[in-house]
Amino acid sequence: MWNRDLLMSSLALVISLWILAGSARADESLERPSGTGVIVHPDGYVLTTYHVLSRASRIIVVTPGEIRNQATVVAIDEARDLALLQIQTIGLFEAALGYAGHVRLDHPVFVAGFPFGLPEVSITRGRITAVRTKGLRTVFQIDAAINPGNSGGPLFNEDGEVVGIITTKFSRPSGIPPEGMGFALPISFATPLLANIPHFDFTMIGQRALFPNSTEQKIKRVEEMARMTVRIETVRVPPSTDNGIDSPSADRTKSHASGHKGETPTGPNTKEPDETNRFTGGLKPLQQVQHDELTKLTQQGIDPPKGMLLIPEGEFLRGSEHGLPDARPLRPIYLSGFWIDQFEVTNDQYRQCVQAEVCSIPKDQEVFDDAELGMYPVSNVTWFQARTYCHWKGQRLPTEAEWEKAARGIDGRRYPWGDEAALAHALLKTNDPDRKRHGIFPVGSLPDTASPYGVGDLAGNVWEWVRDWYAEDYYAMASTRNPQGPIHGTFRVLRGGDWNQSPLELQ
């Protein structure tokens, strides 16, 4: 029997998410200034607010010198109104991050941004006037001038460190807050998003004050703040009343969550008409959607990463009305496009990381060292070992939502192959000699268990680690757009199960 605390399949490797909808257009005038961002890593990572991007079909980050860069969305935290972008460019200056917990009332601060979409960065001085609670958010109230266009910009302390991100979510409808009523989100709220940056050095937070407080350096400080601040322009799509991706209503979400695969007056496994039309009827097969999106990317000069499959952007049905309590309810969730490994990481692949002196040896060395098991999935690996391997590959663990969409497609099926448990029962009872040890098959040797997107072994074989912390009520409380998992927790999430589990646990 497997040790569930250690089992994993490091299949769960994903590279950056991005908005796939909306190809580049020749008419640059369609892009309009929508906010500000701050460079938080020299590899092109930019932090901003989510509402700046919430209806964007294309995002442009304008760096100093009016250099225009198309951006991809790496991660968002809709609940805290934050987003992380990435651009492909060089020569960037990253902002040092400070401790939000060191901020005190009456502390001097600087706000950098592009008010009213002006092309020149503006830096204004102010002070922390209060710490307030706005719904689920704790925010700094500041008296510096903040206007439309400042959203997403950095709030610097006197040491030149970013301690907050400007938000105008709490302003008047005009977007102009009353005098002395500007707000900033503490930079600590961005920690889960920053974890998406490979090799981000969290130990340097609060340790890299850029400037001493001499008069000469205060002048240089303003210049450096401007170099770290970027303008964000977007092409926005109008609100839709029928797709529900940008602004799902509570009533509409509830209608999709009711009885999708549960017992209904017309019998079990009956789908409501709107679910059928939305997720199956009239839609191209998922493999065709994959092919079409890959063709678009190839035309843009983007080659598929070796051994990975594209999961296109869009909605899928997450959760269940008939499964375990922590998997309820069933409701539509939108995810940006992403890549995921087609097969679980093998012992041979993981051994390369060990030989590079980056990864540590799995707990079960006997299995790992068996030359005959090189093409079997690596097992008995901790979450930290899985994450280290991902970072060594320049990738990351997927969110639980990404894993679930890759496993079940968009139609809410119970298993990767469909709704029937017969295949699971057959594999649970098989005495196939190819299983070798511990009930494991070689990766990709069970094509009938592949998901609608062609991802193998997502039910059975070995468990897979995902990035999320576990919370029993998260399926009910999560954002409906790119959920990133709970902010904190005690346990990390394992998905997929092994061939010693019941069919219920393999769903």
| Share of β-strand residues | 15-25%
Helix content: 10-25%
Number of DSSP-assigned strands: 22
Strand order of the largest sheet: 4-3-14-1-2-6-5
Rg over C-alpha atoms, rounded to the nearest angstrom: 24 Å
Unreliable segments of 5+ consecutive residues: 1-29, 239-283
Distance from N terminus to C terminus (CA atoms, Å) equals 19 Å
| Count of runs of 4 or more consecutive helical residues | 11
**Major sheet size, sense and barrel closure:** 7 strands, antiparallel
**If you average the pLDDT, what whole number results?**
79
Oligomer status: single chain
Q: Briefly note the structural class of the backbone.
A: alpha+beta
Global morphology: elongated
Describe this structure in words.
- By secondary structure, the protein is of the alpha+beta class.
- 18% of the residues lie in helices and 23% in strands.
- It has 11 helices and 22 strands.
- The radius of gyration is 24 Å and the shape is elongated.
- It starts with 31 loop residues before the first strand and ends in a 12-residue tail after the last strand.
